[in-house]
Amino acid sequence: MRRYGLIGYPLSHSFSQRYFTEKFGREGISGCSYSNFPLAAIDELPGVLADPELRGLNVTIPYKEQVLSFLDARSPVVEAIGACNCIDIRDGRRTGHNTDVVGFEQSLLPLLGSHHRRALILGTGGAAKAVEYVLGKLGIAYRFVTRRPRAGSEDVGYGDVDAAMLGEYTLVVNTTPLGMYPKVDEYPALPYEAAGARHYFFDLVYNPARTLFLQQAEAQGAVVENGHAMLILQAEESWRIWTAADGQ
């Protein structure tokens, strides 16, 4: 049996277990299982890694950065951004990858316009690092918006984002869990009334499909996208990594 799974906390919002279980059945993939591992602390990870049949893990909030110390090797992207959301395990050797980068870029591009040249990234966690990497690759200038701006950085607080700034930054990417099920009444504090048809609001949250962040932007005529397509793309990239040398 080849075992795969997801680590994070909490995992009530996750679709990965159902997605991969259905994938195994739909594609006739035998001898594989996928489980959720809700870890209240990263210190619990060694217990998961002790399974000799474990072949791979996905990593979600809040462990995309904390998991780095458990890796034997890192992909070039993980080295560059310092965040890992996929671990490939072969012969006891753990290699970290970042499939968020692939998922975000491929799901962002279809609705991205030539006028989306400046972006606000909401949050500074592991997912934000993947977004930062993609925006840099695409030549899109960006600033981070966070509750606690980092010393010596160009971060801005939510209270600093006024109508003038939002008018200038026409791409807004939410990498925080604000609005994610079950806390669907939460949303980033922004002057949404300053958004318009030239804006593109992208939310990495996929449950619910329309967070209040997206609803308020859409009400002003903005283009909106949730994280569902990104999630599928990164899941399939994880599977490609896990089975790259299996001949499947």
Concise account of the structure shown:
The chain is of the alpha/beta class. It is built from 8 helices and 11 strands.
pLDDT averaged residue by residue: 95
**Between the first and last Cα atoms, what is the distance in angstroms?**
15 Å
What share of residues is helical? 25-40%
Neighbour order of strands in the largest sheet: 2-1-3-5-6-4
Task: Categorize the overall geometry.
Answer: globular
Q: Output the helix-strand order.
A: EHEHEEHEEHEHEHEEHEH
Radius of gyration: 18 Å
The proportion of residues in beta strands is: 15-25%
Main sheet: strands, sense, barrel: 6 strands, mixed
The oligomeric state is single chain
Structural class estimated from helices and strands:
alpha/beta
* Count of DSSP strands: 11
Q: Residue ranges: pLDDT <50 for 5 or more in a row?
A: none
Individual helix count: 8
How does this model look, in words?
This protein has 248 residues and is of the alpha/beta class. 29% of the residues lie in helices and 21% in strands. A 6-stranded mixed beta sheet has the order 2-1-3-5-6-4. It has a 5-stranded parallel beta sheet with strand order 8-7-9-10-11, with helices on both faces. The two termini are 15 Å apart. The mean pLDDT is 95.
Question: Could you give the topology of this structure?
Answer:
Blueprint: E1 2-8, H1 16-26, E2 32-38, H2 45-49, E3 54-59, E4 73-74, H3 76-81, E5 86-90, E6 93-97, H4 100-108, E7 118-122, H5 126-138, E8 141-145, H6 163-168, E9 171-174, E10 200-203, H7 212-219, E11 223-225, H8 228-242
Parallel strand pairs: 1-2, 1-3, 4-6, 7-8, 7-9, 9-10, 10-11
Antiparallel strand pairs: 3-5, 5-6
